[in-house]
Amino acid sequence: MSFTAKPGFCVASLLDKAGFLGQFDRASLSWENRLREEKEADMQTPVTEIDQMIVQLNEFILPSSLMESFDVYREESVKSAARRFNDAQLSWFLDMLNRFRGPDDRKDSLVDIFDPGMYTCDHPAWEAAPGTRIEMPALTSEVARFVDRNSEFAEIAREEINEFRDHAETYADEELLGLAHIAAAALVDQGKFFHGREEAIRYLALNASAVLEDLWATDDTLWKNAPVRQIQFEDMVAKRKADLLKAESTRPNFEEKDFACYSEDEVRRFAFDIRNLFLTDHAKHLAICTRCQTRLESWTKLVEKFEQSTFTHKGRADA
Ligand SMILES: [Zn+2]
User: How many Å lie between the centroid of ligand 1 and the Cα of residue 61?
Assistant: First the structure.
């Protein structure tokens, strides 16, 4: 049994052939440039290129689990809450929050700092189908309302609020209120309204505190005892599909058939030879479905392992 060598699975050429992306910012494809440099070595494997494609096409991805839908909703909410600030202001906010959290607990984005999933372990939503309802633990700012004044939590909370107040000193009231509004969007704290600077400081300090995260990791009783949040949110799968179907020149041209997941048989055929992907009339699906990306990735690994073992076997037989 022999398998033809896989052609270098170059996503850039794949995108050209399939015309995935319409008006696409090719300059941002750093890995495409890297590919050019490494042309001789051709070290690109299908797996790493799929990873790169996932990053690149993030805003087109159709969520494939309840948690992914929820995260897409959070990201879009934060984007709209952050609209009144420019990129420089947003990175100052992130920098200030990271200084408050400390060097060992830095995060890459405001969405990551204000992550309602932080106070959960193995949330079942990772395994559940996409939906519009999710249960989340109480926010730390809520937990604070139920704790004893003399508890360890209350003591840490007071210190953290004071420390955050110092970090926030140079920020104007409307900046802090805007940041608190972004935090509430990221935490999906629906209908949250802030009455003034001090309330915003308290909310930001408690929900961004790495020290309180550590306390939760040691003993999560307080969080467990606080009332859970039942959150209703928009159907993000439907929204993404509608966005993709909208005939806008800036978006790739997607059709209804591009939303269907591949069959097991198809995924297997793509893993053995990625050229088979171009032969289907719904190749674009790969760009927007994390589920199928993961399936193809694991099949590709299997095939590679299989090819290696047949090669080794053959080598031994020839010797
Ligand atoms: Zn799929």
Answer: 10
